[in-house]
What does this fold into?
Amino acid sequence: MRRQTVIALAVAIVLGIFAVILANAYIGRNDQKVAQAQQGMTKVAVAAIPLDYGTDITPDKVKFVDYPSASLPAGVFSNYNQLAPAGKRRVVLRPIALNEPILPTKLAGEGLGPSISYLLPDGMRAAAVRINDVSGVAGFIQPMDTVDVLVTRTLPDAGNRQVTDVLLQAVKVIAIDQNAQGADGKPIVAKTATLEVNPTDAQKLALAQQVGSLSLVLRKPGEAQDAGRLATVSMNDLRYSYYGTAPAGAQPAQVTPAVAPRRVIIRRPAPVVRTAPPRPATNNVEVVRGTTGSNYEVGGYGS
It folds into this structure.
């Protein structure tokens, strides 16, 4: 009995030593993999919360996560001192999503505030136009909306005739008054709207404000809609003479008299009345006696 116990104990010790060796080898390999992975990772500053335009960068809005060193975006920040050196102010210019790396291209310069000039693409300009509660679509136009610009002016060479033209189409609004965010989506009755235009369109806007009044028309963003349907609208298109005295030089609209509908008369042929052929003349005499009748032929003997 003692021999069997010693053998079982020896086997258990051998198996335990073998298990310990396997466990140490497995743990060692995992530690080596973790160390190698950590050697190829870099801490990167990312947004701890969604950051909108004009948001100040503060430590509670930034966190640092591991990124593969071989796949780092250009310009990433590895610590907060790089992001905001010496406590200088850094402001967000373009929206940054949650866990998105914070890059210099989405921030204002060190110590600088937000400026819509950073939002302009290359070759574009920011031009402000005067609006009111009517020309600004009752305040429903928000930054980043797309609008058409209409100009209403008087033509001196055409008898001071007023016309309205489409001046610009599919123009992006980058600010309303001094607000470039419009995050709440509430109507804002503003006095100015800042539009993103090219240099030539900026000149058109400046001239149009001197010769007439501008109106903004809100449109659906995305694909160009009705891009080719442009026309000059004048008083004649409003049928002004129907409701009041037409302006000098305006021609009254030609009214075409209504034409009475034609009556179509379908003549049907008269019905044909068929008459029974006349009975031939006879010399028969019917004599009724009681309920019995008898026919007798009379005359005709000499004919």
Q: What stands out?
A: Helices lie at 2-39, 80-83, 199-211. The longest helix spans residues 2-39. The CA atoms of residues 155 and 161 lie 5 Å apart. The mean pLDDT is 76.
